[in-house]
Description:
Blueprint lengths: L4 H13 L8 E4 L5 E4 L3 E8 L7 H23 L4 E7 L8 H15 L5 E3 L10 E9 L6 E2 L10 H13 L9 E8 L18 E3 L2 E8 L4 E5 L1 E3 L7
Amino acid sequence: MARRSSEIEEYYFEKLRTHYVFPEGKIVYGDKPDVKIISNKIIGIEITNFYTDRTGGEQSQISMRLNAAQKAQKSYQDKHKNNIEFTFSFDRDFPITNVGQFSKRLALLAERLEPHPIGWISREYFADVKELSFVWRGKEYDDCEWKVAQPFTISMMNIDHLEEIIREKEKKAAQYQACDANWLLIVVDFINLAQDQEISNAALKEIQSDVFEKVIVYKTVLEQIVEVPIIFSDSRNKN
């Protein structure tokens, strides 16, 4: 069962607590902000994810590719007794626009590629399926699954995108419960291909914020933690 949104944020925070020292206090989970640390003052912590594609397009494509491969395999196996394993990679320049239609084309392609020996298949044999960049024809065996293997180059953290996330969260600050201080936790989930990126202090620059005293970027699994240098001006104290 998929986690609820609040459970995901609690999961990220609890993982980070094992590697980062937060101020002492009672931990309360909620919404806007996602976490509150209550002691002699209240620190509110908002949690969000850092996608490499800020449009959300690549995240959507990852899901569509997996869905299309599953549908195509079912369609193929409904017509054929043999189970052939295929692995596909996709061309980002040609996104899938309709999963149903593409899955039918993928099933027909598999039929065409049946006679090929096990191994890499030259692109000339699937040039008409421009959404694909790579096809591997595997063995024939029961319970095989068609796979999506998306090779990609891990990018460095984009500082402009980082600042965009901060600005977006600042705009929503009026919806937050009143706290004495606000922090922002930006999570790079290592498991999610749409988020995976290298985070580093090297390229960071000072970012001014009227809302967040502290901004932390946290990459799961590798347990990397980067504190963004924030110039905090606190608009609440402005005349």
